[in-house]
From TrEMBL:
GO terms for molecular function: hydrolase activity; metal ion binding. Keywords: Hydrolase, Metal-binding, Zinc. The keyword Mitochondrion does not apply. Gene3D superfamilies: Ribonuclease Z/Hydroxyacylglutathione hydrolase-like (3.60.15.10). InterPro entries: MBL_Glyoxalase_II, Metallo-B-lactamas, RibonucZ/Hydroxyglut_hydro. Transmembrane segments: none annotated. Residues 13-193 form the Metallo-beta-lactamase domain. The keyword Phosphoprotein does not apply. It comes from the Bacteria. SMART domains: Lactamase_B. Residues 190-211 are annotated as: Disordered. This is MBL fold metallo-hydrolase.
């Protein structure tokens, strides 16, 4: 059974997830900032990272990417529709806030283009393209372990913001209904901010999904 470590990192407390197996290999989702804290967890738990996977490329999800990639010599995965976001503050959102530095990250090593089953070492996951919050937002579903990493697509009692570059509320709601709410009701959904939820809970209580 896979283990999930969640770290809240950076200026807006973005959830970074470290998914590990019994063999002590792991994959890192959305290392938004504070690479040192991620390294501490990996060292303490004696984990070997195989890859960095990004649900999308907004600044608060990418801040520690280059440092971790350089240290561990591992590939970064991102949807191709956000190819330009990594190096352009006006697209990744950091340019929107005067209090933030401009975030610029090197190109991904692997570009996701379609919904598919992705295998990295012992990890197997289904990829759902879930745009709306951003054009290349992706959710990663681990069917055997009954959980999904969903980025800023869906939150407990809320949905992702749609006022950033290429955001669309109608597209976002379609992504949620067509991909995330079709999962088994007890599936744990781990978002980019805040606590986990389930499709069953969101169908019942999320005010954005009652229309």
């Amino acid at each position: 059974m896979l283990k999930i470590d969640r770290l809240e990192l950076g200026p807006v407390q973005t959830n970074c997830y470290i998914i590990s197996g019994e063999d002590k290999q792991c994959i890192i989702f959305d290392p938004g900032e504070e690479a040192g804290k991620i390294q501490e967890v990996l060292k303490r738990k004696q984990l070997t990272p195989l890859a960095i996977l990004l649900t999308h490329a907004h600044f608060d999800h990418i801040g520690a990417v280059d440092e971790l990639r350089d240290i561990y010599k591992i590939p970064v995965y991102l949807h191709h529709k956000e190819r330009d976001f990594l190096g352009r503050p006006n697209l990744n959102g950091s340019g929107k806030y005067a209090a933030l530095p401009d975030y610029r990250v090197a190109d991904a090593d692997e570009w996701i283009s379609d919904e598919q089953t992705l295998e990295i070492g012992p990890f197997q996951m289904e990829l759902f393209h879930t745009p709306g919050h951003s054009p290349g937002s992706v959710s990663f579903y681990f069917a055997k372990d009954r959980f999904a990493i969903v980025g800023d697509t869906l939150f407990s009692g809320s949905i992702g913001r749609t006022d950033l570059t290429e955001g669309s509320e109608s597209v976002l709601l379609k992504s949620i209904r067509d991909s995330l709410l079709t999962l088994p009701e007890e599936t744990f959904l781990f978002p980019g901010h805040g606590p986990e939820t389930t499709p069953g809970q969101e169908r019942q209580h999320n005010p954005f999904l009652r229309i």
